[in-house]
Amino acid sequence: MLHGIGVSRGVAIGKAHIILRGSIEVLESAVPPGLIEQEVERYLSALESARLQLISIRDRIPGRARADIAIFIDTHLLMLKDATITNTPVELIREKGCNAEWALKLQRDAVIEVFEQMNDPYLRSRKDDVDHVINRIQRILQATAQGEVSAGDSLQGSIVLTDDLTPAETVMIEHQGTSAFATEYGGPLSHSAILARSVQLPAIVGVRGIQHYIHDGDEIILDGHQGVLIADPDERLLEHYRERQRREIQRRDELARLAQTPAITLDRVPIRLMANIELPEDIEALNRENTTGIGLYRTEFLFMNRAQPPDEEEQYVCYTGVIEALKGKPLTIRTLDMGADKEVDGSSSGQRCGNNPALGLRAIRLCLKDLSLFCPQLRAILRASCHGPVRIMIPMLSNTHEIRQILGLIEEAKRSLQRDGLSYDPQVQVGGMIEIPAAAISARAFANQLDFLSIGTNDLIQYTLAIDRVDDEVNYLYDPLHPAVLKLIRMVIEAGDSAGIPVAMCGEMAGDPDYTCLLLGMGLTEFSMHHTALQEVKRVINQSSIAELTPKVEALLQSEDSDRILAQLEVINSSLS
Ligand code: PEP
Ligand code: MG
Q1: pTM, to two decimals
Q2: Which of 28, 175, 393, 480 is deepest in the core (most CB within 10 A)?
């Protein structure tokens, strides 16, 4: 049994198909001055071949595959056009008089170092994409085979075992019928892992020494939930996993059918299930899930990886596109939440954040300090509001003074639009995220000034328990069931109820089905989450009765001990009808 990290759930049983390419060895060699330009040409022609390879892979993506799959390949195509790959290695060849492979290796090491220093785990793991693109070019330069599965191969029912998979290869193997894959390298946030989850291909990463234990054609079991590969399984084990597969298929069918049914508890309480999105492209996947709308649109992704922030017009066009794609369902646009874990290239927020970025000038604090960022966004959201239902949501509020200031700025933005003869929806609702313990404790005052509240548990837990959410060393302390966290959540729900305004939750806790009963029993009726979690959470909702849950959760909340709370919650979860 080999262990790795399960990154995409599900079980597969099949024959191993091993694709091992080994590491690429790059040696430095001097190029005589007279041949430098020829070396530069060799490099540029390798770039062109890499581009053509990717285009050909993209063209082979089956029609049924989702648009986001092509986006991963487009990302690699864009990287091939980036100056870090097109210009710098060429300059290095000329400056150092070295071979193209060596120049590319030097540039790779420099770029990877920048990625390694990033705080945000998602952005940090983009270094895998850099390596995938650079390895592709290196293989072309060294004229070694890509080791890619060729288009004609059938992988029907096989389990691909490899050192690493590019997103393009992930698309190919899925298309060719593979039933799962395991890699030696890569992490849970790699694009291949994200892709595997979105196409529901069981997958494990970080399985070391595959080739020493498993041979091509061996019968193996891959368990993407537990993160294990089992070689040479006996009949008893095979039967156990076949049974798990049957249950898994049943569960998927059930979840797919659920997309068509409303989220409503057994005692007929309708629950609003909304989705969190980061990019306008996410809408496409959402439309199949039948959501009530978008509960959190993280607009900072529009500001990332560029030297200048998008202007009002660009934002207006982008928000309008999302609103139109939603066809009348409400869109909650969160104003820029920049700083701390969300670095935005080309901004000066990094320098402004000081030693404790999470406690520094981030999110609404930064926007109120830099109105040239905030006001164009407010105007853009207001203008977009004439195209469909829109709500404005403010991140990281800590006091009511900020709220007054923001409401004043929104009024000012409306007046300026009137002066410019531009229309907007005068009824646009303004809500706030409750992410700071002080905001939760003062939620009544917040609720009196706002149209809705949304609990951002990712930050609320970070600030309540004083654990940096991007610091792996303190990850183990991250505990949504900490009694202090639960008390704060409850305060916010109660504050919303007594002010008569809706309260949603849009942090990760909302999308974890293990907490659904707990939150329902606490009185939460609006959940917003990543779209892949929607049906799972709906399944729990549709099997729950609020009237039954309320006293049980009430009893659980009396406990001051996380372990006891967890034990009680497990009993509640297992008693679902
Ligand atoms: C949160 O903090 O829970 C949240 C939803 O916002 P983000 O994860 O973008 O900080
Ligand atoms: Mg947050």
Answers
A1: 0.69
A2: 393
